[in-house]
Design brief:
The protein is about 5% helix and about 60% strand. The chain is mainly β.
């Protein structure tokens, strides 16, 4: 099972959406209720550019995580504001992976036009031990409807998101949670890579 997931992640990351569709939504925080994240975004297609984003996640209860944030980029995607809510349907237990559905909302400026989008991302994740450190690979399928308010048109998009989250295994940084995510366009979306560091707060 571990070898299959590793091979799948390697294959996906070697191939050429909305940056960070999933983030830490599927990470199993136990005690912490507030998580603050800073992340680096890199769009690789359809308006390429780099930027930064800040996210806040609130663990409402053991089944629901809610988040909001904003980001700025130096490419065609100048700025964006986003929110989401992840609802766990099946928990990560034994050999059984976690399954959840994340609702997505976003408004962004793309080439001077305002695009408002909404959608959902079915997500599968599973905890594994890597060299004595627990980490949580995930795979998701974000599906969105984007509304162009300037032109009065809409467009549907589909992407594949894959990544991993886990506590940083470095000395004094073990209280921090890192995440790495790649999004690949399947239809009318774009490719992005995201890396972030989060501080859980009780």
């Amino acid at each position: 099972m571990r070898k299959s997931i590793f091979m799948l992640l390697t294959l996906l990351l070697s191939s050429s959406v909305m940056a960070s569709s999933i983030g830490l939504s599927s990470h199993p925080f136990v005690m912490e209720k507030h998580i603050v994240t800073t992340q680096f975004d890199s769009y690789l297609s359809n308006g390429s550019g780099m930027g930064i984003a800040a996210r806040y996640l609130n663990r409402m209860n053991e089944k629901i995580n809610m988040e909001a944030g904003f980001g700025v980029n130096d490419g065609d995607r100048a700025s964006r504001f986003f929110a989401g809510a992840d609802m766990m349907i099946i928990p990560d237990y034994g050999r059984q992976p976690r399954f959840s559905i994340k609702g997505l909302l976003q408004t962004e400026s793309v080439e001077g036009e305002r695009i408002n989008s909404f959608g959902a991302a079915p997500t599968v994740s599973k905890g594994f031990s890597f060299w004595g450190n627990e980490a949580f690979p995930f795979l998701a399928l974000p599906i969105n409807v984007g509304l162009n308010t300037d032109e009065g048109t809409y467009e549907t998009s589909t992407a594949l998101a894959t990544g991993i989250t886990g506590r940083l295994p470095f000395g004094n940084f073990r209280d921090l949670v890192g995440n790495l995510e790649a999004n690949f366009s399947l239809r009318n979306s774009y490719t992005s890579i995201v890396a972030g560091v989060s501080l859980p707060i009780q």
